[in-house]
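Why should sequence recovery work at all? Because a backbone constrains its sequence more than one might expect. Tight turns favour small or flexible residues, buried strands favour hydrophobic ones, and helices have their own preferences. The token representation captures these environments compactly. In the example below, the structure is given first.
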């Protein structure tokens, strides 16, 4: 009878050791997932920086183009005012005013696109941070469960 109890106890110990090994493996998997998530976040941050830089460069380029067009319009308007025929001057002014309005609309459209890109980037960052938070909560919960289990087994 004592021998059977000893064997049962040995089997129970082996079973518990196996469970502990499995839990250690789970912890290693969680740590590996953490590293992958950190790499993914770093990649997202780099992508965000590149998009922000691209947006800034595009904005500067467009503003420069618009400024150049405005200077050209002003020059043309001054040339027009020197013309002898007021009717031709008025039609030319209207033509360039229309072009000026088109350029303003283009600038507005580009600004809206940049805002949309920035919003998308911010949303992506927010989502990544939520994933990190959920992962940290999961990791904390898993470690607490393992520790509770180990404490119960020590008792």
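From this structural description, the recovered sequence reads:
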């Amino acid at each position: 009878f004592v021998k059977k109890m000893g064997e049962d106890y040995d089997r129970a110990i082996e079973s518990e050791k196996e469970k502990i090994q499995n839990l250690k493996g789970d912890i290693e998997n969680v740590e590996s997932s953490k590293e992958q998530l950190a790499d993914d976040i770093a990649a997202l941050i780099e992508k965000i920086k590149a998009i922000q830089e691209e947006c800034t460069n595009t904005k500067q380029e467009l503003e420069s183009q618009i400024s150049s067009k405005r200077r050209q319009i002003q020059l043309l308007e001054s040339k027009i005012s020197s013309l002898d025929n007021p009717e031709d001057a008025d039609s030319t002014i209207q033509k360039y005013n229309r072009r000026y309005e088109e350029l303003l609309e283009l600038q507005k459209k580009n600004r809206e696109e940049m805002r949309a890109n920035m919003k998308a980037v911010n949303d992506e960052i927010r989502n990544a941070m939520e994933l990190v938070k959920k992962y940290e909560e999961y990791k904390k919960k898993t470690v607490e469960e393992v520790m509770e289990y180990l404490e119960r087994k020590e008792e």
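A few observations help interpret the result. DSSP finds two helices and no strands in the chain.
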